[in-house]
Specification:
Blueprint lengths: L4 E4 L5 H11 L10 E7 L2 E10 L4 E8 L8 H8 L1 H6 L2 E6 L3 H6 L2 E3 L7 H12 L4 E6 L1 H9 L1
Parallel strand pairs: 4-5
Antiparallel strand pairs: 1-2, 2-3, 3-4, 5-7, 6-7
């Protein structure tokens, strides 16, 4: 497994993140008002995740690991590295349903739609109407502790 360095993206490197998305996840597009964390090695950016900021919460979105590095623990390492960000205020995510257990192993708990803030309920319904199978989740630091003690 290659060893990635994880840290927030420096603003000057913002164009690189959209190039990374364009190559491996064309539907993803970073915005300058998002907080972006990356994992990189000497070859460049290999993983990223964005945090869209709302007034009372944030939405983890656009998580991407280079296809050659998937299923090697890099996504979990990225989420662990940005734990300070996921803990700063409530952090929701819309997990592709097949990734629900991955997010649960990183401290997210599954929610019912009615547990989401209204603006996120509207958003998840719109995404589902476009054919995406999504599960709403919320980061719960106590859940992460319970998992590590099990």
């Amino acid at each position: 497994m290659s060893k990635l360095r994880f840290h927030p993206l420096e603003p000057l490197r913002f164009p690189l993140i959209n190039r990374f998305y364009k190559t491996y996840y064309p539907a993803g597009k970073a915005k300058k008002d998002e907080i972006i964390w990356i994992g990189e090695d000497n070859k460049g950016i290999q993983a990223c995740v964005r945090f869209k900021q709302f007034e009372q919460f944030q939405l983890l979105t656009g998580m991407l690991v280079h296809p050659d590095l998937r299923s090697q623990g890099q996504g979990a390492a990225l989420l662990s590295a940005c734990q300070a960000q996921t803990s700063v205020q409530p952090c929701y995510c819309f997990a592709f349903s097949y990734l629900e257990s991955f997010y649960q192993s990183s401290g997210f708990v599954t929610l019912e739609d009615n547990q989401l803030p209204e603006s996120l309920r509207t958003r998840i319904n719109r995404y589902r109407q476009s054919g995406k199978s999504l599960t709403p989740m919320l980061y719960d630091q106590s859940s992460k502790r319970e998992l590590s003690q099990a």
